[in-house]
Amino acid sequence: xxxxxxxxxxxxxxxxxxxxxxxxxxxxxxxxxxxxxxxxxxxxxxxxxxxxxxxxxxxxxxxxxxxxxxxxxxxxxxxxxxxxxxxxxxxxxxxxxxxxxxxxxxxxxxx
Amino acid sequence: xxxxxxxxxxxxxxxxxxxxxxxxxxxxxxxxxxxxxxxxxxxxxxxxxxxxxxxxxxxxxxxxxxxxxxxxxxxxxxxxxxxxxxxxxxxxxxxxxxxxxxxxxxxxxxxxx
Lengths: 111, 113
Fold this sequence. Notes:
Radius of gyration of chain A: 13 Å
Helix content of chain B: under 10%
Distance between the termini of chain B: 37 Å
Distance between the termini of chain A: 37 Å
Oligomer: heterodimer
Shape of chain B: globular
Order of helices and strands of chain A: EEEEEEEEEEE
Order of helices and strands of chain B: EEEEEEEEEEE
Strand content of chain B: over 45%
Number of strands of chain A: 11
């Protein structure tokens, strides 16, 4: 079983719509959580950290559910430029900074 | 702005060749990482280093070695390249402490024929 699991998609989303997707993680001792964004043929870049109380950054909202061990990302008012692969990333406790990456969820925003 | 650079964007090598991939970061980060990324498998950690001359195996170290002689530079070595090492190779760096955000280089797409 993978340590971080994501639905690969693609999620096809009309421009202006809302899309949400989850990832699950297996290590209950994980201490920090992130969403990274990766554009086609580019390197991953940090989109946002995920805090226990949930957090927003503009049109993006991240939620953490420790009891069920999942993280979610919601994108409101989708833009064409939101088309990318979104990587769910987990930092286990005592991991020397080694992040665990999901394989990514592909989002395609269509006009 | 953090900058992580990699020596090549595209590389084609023959089976059995020795391959060097270099990564340089300019943020004085303690931690450096080498990953490979393959479709459907995501990022897999090959090796990482948390200090000069220190190295730790990641999840898939077989067939690879690394070198970190200076803090800013982390090299990945394929001693004898094989076709199953055809992949995208990504280097990353991060600081220590609470912020473990990793900054990635642009990647090297390696093809072994």
